[in-house]
Amino acid sequence: MQPAEFEEKEFESSLYHQLAGSSPNLWTPGQVFEGHFGIDAAIFVTHPFFYQAFNIIHPVGSVILNDYSWEYVWKPYEDKHPLPNFSVNALFQAKRPDFLQGRNSILATHGIGSSYWRFKITEYQHRLLNRLYIKLKKRIIISYVSTAFHTLSDLYIHISNNTLVSNCSFVSAWRLNDHKQWCYNSPGATGVARSDPEFIKDVTFLDQVNQVSEIYSEIVNSNHRPSDFLRELSETTLNISKEEKENPIAKMILILRNILRDNFSRKLSEEQQNFLDFHIFTRMTNTHWLVIGS
């Protein structure tokens, strides 16, 4: 067994960037939030080089943007491609693969030969993701994604050629219920789930996006507002975290949500709180959040 020459962090940012650009129906939540509520993203910078570049001696004091009126900046604008509304979402968890060589008789019966890749799932994260899928069903894609290569040279080639997505293996999280591993020997959505071997030919990533985009088209004409769907995401992740009483990740999600409310509830709007609630869930389940429209 040979672990990939790169860590997850070395390929996931490029992967997610290419994922967002692989379909006109995919948006980052920051784009959506900016369009509907007037903010996109912010970062607290502590590195002295940043402040030296602006001739500032030390980090300046922070502010709460809600304390100010920004309407003159954040005016509504028309767009030929309307923003989605958080009704249909996609979560992806990048996995670092192991490369294995040597014939496995069980895998061979399912068409996987003498060399293949494999990754293992994390039980506590998987349980939360599966509960979320059960709650939202056809309105969410939750997928594991891993590279169908393992060398740094291949990684750099696919980053520079914008070909990461077409050289990865995707499998819906729910497909790995009662399993611990995903084994595959090519890009796409075909492989073998183990422990009890099960051959799986999943729907391709882009086909899944197109399918749920059709659902979005039906929802977008409803009377629901983006804030309604954000509230649903917040409440759903709160409920499933409470249901997973012995799950350490669920416990931490609840702790972080309480910290958010204890320290910022008076400064944040309901929409912003709900947005951050779901963001906490994605960070703790190590998933990347994209929003689907049409």
Main sheet: which strands, in order across?
1-4-5-8-9-10
Structural class: alpha+beta
Specify Rg, calculated over alpha carbons: 21 Å
> What is the succession of H and E elements?
EHEHHEEHEHEHEEEEHHHHE
Give the arrangement of secondary structure elements:
Elements: E1 2-3, H1 8-20, E2 26-27, H2 29-37, H3 48-53, E3 89-95, E4 98-101, H4 105-108, E5 115-120, H5 123-136, E6 140-147, H6 152-160, E7 168-172, E8 181-184, E9 190-194, E10 198-201, H7 205-219, H8 226-243, H9 248-264, H10 270-284, E11 288-292
Parallel strand pairs: 3-6
Antiparallel strand pairs: 1-4, 2-11, 3-11, 4-5, 5-8, 6-7, 8-9, 9-10
Helix pairs in contact: 5-8, 8-9, 8-10, 9-10
Would you give an account of this structure?
The protein has 294 residues and is of the alpha+beta class. The protein has two domains: 2-26 and 88-204, no CATH class; 29-62 and 73-83 and 223-286, no CATH class. It is 41% helix and 18% strand. The protein has helices at 8-20, 29-37, 48-53, 105-108, 123-136, 152-160, 205-219, 226-243, 248-264, 270-284; strands at residues 2-3, 26-27, 89-95, 98-101, 115-120, 140-147, 168-172, 181-184, 190-194, 198-201, 288-292. The strands form two sheets. A six-stranded antiparallel β-sheet has the order 1-4-5-8-9-10, with no helix packed on it. A five-stranded mixed β-sheet has the order 2-11-3-6-7, with helices on both faces. Strand 8 and strand 9 form a beta hairpin. Helix 8 (226-243) crosses helix 10 (270-284). The protein starts with a strand and ends with a strand. Mean pLDDT is 85; it is low at 70-80.
